[in-house]
Amino acid sequence: MASSPCGGGNFDCGLEIQTRSVEQTLIPLVSQITTLINHKDKLKKTEKTLRAIQRVGQAVSVAVGRFVTVGEAIAAENEDLKDEMGLACFEARRAGTAIAQLTDVSSLEQCEGDARSTVFGDRTGMVKAARMLLSSVTKVLVLADCIVIKQIISSRNKVLVTLEQLERVSTFQEFVQIFSQFGNEMVEFAHLTGDRQNDLKDEKKRARMAAARAVLEKCTMMLLTASKTCLRHPDCESARINKEAVFQRMRLALEQVIEIVTDTRSGGEAKALPVSIYAGIKDFKVQ
Question: Which Pfam families match (predicted)?
Answer without folding.
Answer: Vinculin
